[in-house]
Specification:
Layout lengths: L3 H15 L2 H4 L2 H14 L5 H4 L2 H4 L1 E5 L6 E7 L2 E5 L14 E2 L10 H12 L3 H10 L2 E3 L6 E3 H9 L1
Antiparallel strand pairs: 1-2, 2-3, 3-4, 5-6
Helix pairs in contact: 1-3, 6-7
Length: about 160
């Protein structure tokens, strides 16, 4: 692989930055650094899309009807909706509660990221991951789908 040594060095530097409390006290910076590390580790999709945790939403099509759903997890609640202006109190769009995955059932990348966030003192990020690796119900057709799989399908 071209530049393998340099990429390895950059991954190590990013790992060191993740251990620096001065950098990781801010959850936004923590997510950015962890996303960067995932990129250097060759984790497809998540290296580029992990920052959705900072935005507290992912926009993905329903795998059944193709309607765009906003998967919202954070300040405005934990739901799926088809309304891009869900943050306005005047919205009357349907908001369907998300179904978080229990951390005990996490495997692979989900388990690695959740455990890492807890170990690194980022419980809010760990909580958001339960929704990102959980399920959503389409606000249009009611189909239930995996948020993670929808994200990977969208950007994979």
């Amino acid at each position: 692989m071209t530049y393998a040594s340099q990429i390895s060095d950059l991954a190590q530097l990013t790992e060191e930055a993740l251990q620096d409390p001065g950098l990781t006290d801010n959850p936004t910076t923590y997510v950015d650094l962890l996303g960067t590390l995932l990129s250097f580790q060759g984790v497809e999709v998540w290296g580029e899309q992990f920052d959705g945790l900072n935005d507290e939403e992912y926009e993905v099509p329903c795998p059944t009807c193709d309607t765009e759903n906003f998967i919202v997890f954070g300040e405005y609640g934990f739901f799926s909706t088809t309304d891009s202006m869900y943050m306005r109190t005047s919205t009357s769009a349907r908001q369907v509660p998300l179904r978080p995955q229990a951390p005990a059932s996490f495997e692979g990348l989900a388990q690695k990221l959740h455990s890492r966030a807890l170990t690194d003192g980022q419980p809010d990020i760990a909580r958001k991951l339960t929704y990102v690796f959980g399920s959503a119900q389409c606000a249009e057709c009611d189909a239930v789908f995996s948020v993670e799989e929808a994200i990977v399908a969208q950007w994979g």
